Amino acid sequence: MTALELAWFKSSHSDPGQNCVEAALLPSAIALRDSKHDTGPALFLSPGAWQPFLGWARTGGAATAAR
Fold this sequence. Notes:
- The protein has helices spanning 47-58, 62-65, and strands spanning 9-10, 21-26, 29-34, 43-45.
- By secondary structure, it is of the alpha+beta class.
- The protein has a four-stranded antiparallel beta sheet with strand order 1-2-3-4.
- Strand 2 and strand 3 form a beta hairpin.
C-alpha cells in the first residue's frame, strides 16, 4: 500500500486555512503528511515513537531545538 492509498484524515488541531496535518492509521504505524503536499513525503512513526513525538511537537519541536 502506498501513502496515496491510505485513509488520511485531518488533525483536529488544523486551522481553517492551509496549515493542516493529515494522519493515517496503519496496524504498525501512524503516518503524517502536510495536506498541501499530498503527493509529497510522509512521516511514519511506530506506536512506540508516537508519544515521544507528540511530546516533542507540543514543546515547539524543531523551533525549540534550533534555539
